Amino acid sequence: MSHLGTIDNPLRVAIVGSGPSGFYATEALFKSGHTVHIDMFERLPVPFGLVRSGVAPDHPKLKQPMQLYDKIGQTPNFNFLGNVTVGRDLTVEQLRKTYHAVIFTCGAETDRKLGVPGENLLGSYTATEFVGWYNGHPDYRDRDFDLSSEIVAIIGQGNVAADVCRILSKTVNELKQTDIAEHALDALARSRVREIHVIGRRGPAQAKFTNRELRELGELEDCDPIIDPAELDLNPQSIVELEDKNNPVSAKNVETFKSWGTRGAPTKSKRCHFHFFRSPTALKGAGRLEKIVLEKNRLDGDPFNQSARGTGEALEMDCGLLFRSIGYRGLPLAGLPFDDKKGVFPNRDGRIINGNDVLPGLYCSGWIKRGPSGIIGTNRADSVETVQSLLQDLANFESQAKPGAEALYPLLKARNVRVISYADWRKIDAAEIERGKAKDKPREKFTKISEMLAVL
Amino acid sequence: MTTVVTDNCEKCRFTDCVTVCPVGCFHADGNMLYIDPEVCIDCSACVPVCPVHAIFEGDDIPDDKKHWIQINAERAPNLPVIEDKEDPLPTAEEKKAALGY
Ligand SMILES: Cc1cc2nc3c(=O)[nH]c(=O)nc-3n(C[C@H](O)[C@H](O)[C@H](O)COP(=O)(O)OP(=O)(O)OC[C@H]3O[C@@H](n4cnc5c(N)ncnc54)[C@H](O)[C@@H]3O)c2cc1C
Ligand code: SF4
Ligand code: SF4
After folding, report:
1. What is the rounded CA–CA span in Å between residue A441 and residue A185?
2. Going by DSSP bridges, is the β-strand pair A110-111/A328-329 parallel, antiparallel, or unpaired?
3. Angstrom distance (rounded) from CA A226 to CA A238
4. Which fold has domain A11-109+329-420?
5. Quick count: other Cβ atoms within 10 Å of Cβ A246?
6. pLDDT score, position A261
7. A26-51: per-residue pLDDT in tens?
8. Of all atoms in ligand 2, which is nearest to the CA of residue B28?
9. What is the pLDDT of residues A362-398, one digit of tens each?
10. Domain ranges in chain A?
11. Which of A99, A301, A381, A442 is deepest in the core (most CB within 10 A)?
12. Residues 6 or more apart from A293 whose CB is under 8 A from it?
């Protein structure tokens, strides 16, 4: 029998999820020197995961990795099976039998909850839904966000919170030439939001924004950043954190906050207020959100390990709209173990494990491997690590030839699944770009699966 | 707005930065790395991973390092792309210690 990884017996790998980690795993396998055939499965008809449906529309440059993924997508040994949900249309076991190895790069598609009473009141939403909505993700396009409230709270102080804050505070003029979904632009044009409160449970030195994303909130056309200088007093442990040479990001964030604290009276029509050391303990309202109860916190612990502890002091704030942005979470997949605490597939260097046992041939990368942290490029190093593990295991793989997608198309057809090829996606892509032209937008996304399929 | 590699990278080349670049825009000569501003998307993924803080975002480049903007732009396109981690130069640990990191 010919050697695995040669033209006569290519290494066949299934990749589940077409976000950055899936494409960087593909790239690393193609560079491995072996002959590798990749079948990439994606539950939507359109690829690129959160680069398409997470990264904010007003940050077009950050979406450019799509051009690299598109090049990989057009490589001869790459095959795309869009509109196929693994766990529903195909089982993990079916993939395991059909391929030498399977890499799960299915991201973190749900979000963490606050766990406080009133969380499900009308008016209380997740950043996940809002982001999916303005980016035209089919799962969220029919959400109806009531933007008639003047006061909004955003819980969380990371880059996703910054995105939500920017989209709520930018003018229609600042957004209309981006690839923001049409329904979102229409709703934002009618928004009455004026006061945006961005609330963190720890202090300014622990905020998770990156420098550029934070600074940008001070440079908006029609929104002033507001901060009470008293909230910028730091405890000795936080000063130690800021003085650490290896922590320049926090030091620069605190500089930015300080510069806003001394800016003088606001002049613009919207305001973005930053609050620290506060955790929501209840959301209140008759049928819909009217008030949020916040508990004052203090920090407890050593530098870089400080956690927020409630002081018992409570304070109420009026607000009619709330977005929680305290982290994404992976979803379990039938047939695979799941670490419920971290919301990831348990793994060692990308090899999926059940207890102490490595599950042969099953790997993971990206947010489902390490949790929802890191930006697009972080997934490249992560996928390189997973592929290294896979290549080390090569000698243990069954060396018999595997059929790959050819064996799966009939099963999918029998289930009435319309599989989207990469060539199909390029048609959808071209149609979206064409639709955008008249409005001077880089594209007008299709937001319903039926619309995407209608192009073909 | 540009992201640039500066002199701290000289004699060092830890190359941690290249592993997280989403678009592969680092180029290398025998001495240090450079970023191609035409390809870089200013995502800052590389900035925090450099062990000697050689990389700066546009807004943060100190005045005495501004000339590196031009040096990166001129040299990067004429040098080979580097996308995978390589061993640091033999002088790397010494340089890192000398820089106080
Ligand atoms: C709101 C937001 C904004 C962000 N902005 C930036 C930014 O500006 N810059 C930056 O560098 N990073 C940004 N990030 C981070 C970046 O998007 C992530 O690091 C990256 O997308 C994670 O890649 P991934 O491949 O692990 O997951 P994802 O990108 O989520 O891809 C997972 C893919 O798997 C598919 N999938 C899931 N389950 C299944 C299944 N059962 N079967 C088939 N397919 C499935 C999903 O549809 C999806 O396409 C942002 C993240 C968010 C949430
Ligand atoms: S990580 Fe820093 S020192 Fe190392 S090669 Fe990159 S820029 Fe140079
Ligand atoms: S800023 Fe991003 S794109 Fe530019 S060199 Fe660094 S990692 Fe690469």
Report:
1. 12
2. antiparallel
3. 22
4. Rossmann fold (3.40.50)
5. 10
6. 86
7. 999 999 999 999 999 999 999 999 99
8. 5
9. 999 999 999 998 999 999 999 999 999 999 999 999 8
10. 11-109+329-420, 113-326
11. A99
12. A280, A281, A282, A283, A284, A314, A315, A316
This prediction has a pTM of 0.96
Assess whether the C-beta atom of B92 lies below 6 angstroms from ligand 2.
Answer: no
Q: Which amino acid is at A268?
A: K
Ligand 3 and B43: CB distance under 6 A: yes
* Chain B interface includes A381 (CB < 8 A): yes
Residue B41 Cα: closest atom of ligand 3: 3
pLDDT digits (tens, 9 = 90+) for A76-101: 999 999 999 999 999 999 999 999 99
- What pLDDT, on the 0 to 100 scale, is given for residue A294? 97
Contact in structure between A78 and A84 (CB atoms under 8 Å): no
> Residue A234 and residue A242: Cα distance in Å, rounded?
10
pLDDT in tens, A223-258: 999 999 999 999 999 999 999 988 889 999 999 999
Cβ–Cβ of B23/A64 closer than 8 Å? Answer: yes
Distance CA A157, CA A214 (A): 10
Task: Fill in the DSSP letter of residue B26.
Answer: E
Separation in Å, CA A433 to CA A223, A320, A426:
31, 36, 10
Q: Find out whether B95 and B51 touch, Cβ atoms under 8 Å.
A: no
SS (H, E, C) chain A: CCCCCCCCCCEEEEEECCCHHHHHHHHHHHCCCCCEEEEEEECCCCCCHHHHHCCCCCCHHHHCHHHHHHHHHCCCCEEEEECCCECCCECHHHHHHHCCEEEECCCCCEECCCCCCCCCCECEEEHHHHHHHHCCCCCCCCCCCCCCCCEEEEECCCHHHHHHHHHHHCCHHHHCCCCCCHHHHHHHHCCCCCEEEEECCCCHHHCCCCHHHHHHCCCCCCEEEEECHHHHCCCHHHHHHHHCCCCHHHHHHHHHHHHHHCCCCCCCCEEEEEECCEEEEEEECCCECCEEEEEEEEEECCCCCCEEEEEEEEEEEECCEEEECCCEECCCCCCCCCECCCCECCEECCEEEECCEEEEEEEECCHHHHCCCCCCCHHHHHHHHHHHHHHHHHHHCCCCCCCHHHHCHHHHHHCCCCCECHHHHHHHHHHHHHHHHCCCCCCCCCCCHHHHHHCC
Ligand 1 center to residue A106 CA distance, Å?
8
Q: Which among B35, B42, B44 is the top mutation candidate for probing chain A, defined by the most A β-carbons within 10 Å of its own β-carbon?
A: B44
Q: What is the rounded CA–CA span in Å between residue A191 and residue A131?
A: 16
For chain B, say whether A240 makes contact (Cβ under 8 Å): no
Provide the 3-class DSSP secondary structure of residue B40. coil
Q: Is the separation of the CB atoms in A414 and A426 below 8 Å? A: no
Give the pLDDT of residue B101: 80
Residue A1 has pLDDT above 70, yes or no: no
Are B19 and A380 in contact (CB < 8 Å)? yes
List the domains of chain B with CATH numbers: 4-99 (3.30.70.20)
**Average pLDDT value over all residues in chain A:** 96
